[in-house]
Design a protein that fits this description.
Length: 364
């Protein structure tokens, strides 16, 4: 799959604290191993109760969850689009990721200096957006030049692309992101194909202090109102609490949550949101050797889903046997689900649904 989320934000907003909490939260989810591939690339486990419920029924030798790669991108400073600071590195990193987790600081603390001297999450978001929009304007201008050279053939598609490129340039010249240019399937496809930074889906993470973790505060209220037109999800989290959780011994964690009035670590809701943001769903394979969650893009057909396990499964795909998750839980075994008529045999055109328990037949 190789899909990645990148964490962005200004320096001192709690970005790295959150990254560390996310990557070690993998270990929280029932001691799954987690890994940091290099200093700023981590693998996070996607918490999924269904996996546990299936393994309780099947009792396999091992349980394998699904994961998302997360990249901690260097803190951004003004002028990044012109290569200031680690600007070039920052922009190259953002280009590589499929979705963005944008952390903004929504807490007052005199001990943690803010780069701009005061706490204002809206301004912080705009600093990051401005740098990305400036880079996108540059990218789109080059692209428009190329398209104009190709337009001499009179190709209708190229002419339409020129039209859209000119419109988005006007849109972004106002400081607006490419995301807010999307109004239908055509503009969505255009933004995606343009490979521009502000076109990537975004999730906002408001980092608050302990007192505001349940209800937010005046900073988060203003911020939510400001980003409302973007249709982006906004999560409230306290990176400090998350960091504390990861340092506690396993047996003390549940008590700590109760004390805080939390159901689970905030990192879990971030991971699930990242998964949705990347347009991913999960299907399961369940046998005595292992119960495993597999990641696919929404809309993937059965052969493509089989290919995630092994390319031979896709090449030699014959059919898939499918039991919907709820039926599996209700009938408790594959055999019982089958005799109740709840196992379907699906061919190459079947679009896999989130939670399907699947078995593939193939020949190579």
């Amino acid at each position: 799959m190789g899909l990645q989320c990148g964490i962005v934000g200004l320096p001192n907003v709690g970005k790295s604290t959150l990254f560390n909490a996310l990557t070690s939260a993998g270990a929280l989810a029932a001691n799954y191993p987690f890994a940091t591939k290099d200093p700023n690339l981590g693998v996070i486990t996607v918490p999924d109760n269904r996996l546990q419920e299936l393994s309780d029924l099947v009792n396999p030798q091992r349980v394998v969850p699904t994961t998302v790669d997360i990249l901690d991108i260097a803190g951004l400073i003004k002028g990044a689009s012109k290569g200031e600071g680690l600007g070039n590195q920052f922009l190259a990193n953002i280009r590589e990721v499929d979705a963005i987790l944008h952390v903004v600081r929504c807490f007052d603390d005199d001990n943690v200096v803010h780069v701009d001297g005061s706490v204002d999450p809206i301004r912080d978001k705009e600093v990051v957006d401005t740098e990305l929009v400036l880079k996108d304007l540059e990218t789109m201008e080059k692209r428009l030049d190329r398209l104009k050279k190709q337009s001499k053939t009179g190709d209708k598609e190229i002419l339409r692309e020129i039209e859209l490129s000119e419109q988005i340039l006007v849109h972004m010249a106002d400081g607006k992101t490419a995301r807010s240019f999307i109004v239908d399937d055509e503009t969505a496809a255009f933004v995606k194909n343009s490979q521009i930074l502000t076109g990537k889906p975004v999730l906002y993470v408001c980092n608050v202090n302990e007192a505001s973790v349940h209800t937010g505060n005046h900073h988060t209220a203003k911020f939510k109102e400001f980003v409302a037109p973007e249709n982006a999800e906004v999560l409230i989290i306290c990176a400090g609490i998350e960091a504390e959780i990861t340092e506690l011994p396993e047996e003390d964690r549940a008590g700590f949550f109760e004390e805080m009035g939390l159901k689970e670590p905030g990192t879990y809701s971030i991971t699930r949101a990242a998964y949705r943001l990347l347009n991913l769903i999960t299907y399961f394979t369940a046998g005595e050797k292992e119960v495993r969650a597999w990641t696919i893009r929404k809309g993937t057909k059965a052969p493509g889903a089989a290919g995630v396990i092994h390319s031979d499964f896709e090449k030699g795909f014959i059919r898939a046997e499918v039991i919907h998750y709820h039926d599996y839980i209700q009938y408790k075994t594959e055999a019982a689900a089958k005799s109740a008529g709840k196992m379907a045999t699906e061919g190459k055109e079947y679009v896999v649904q989130d939670g399907d328990v699947m078995h593939f037949l193939f020949n190579v």
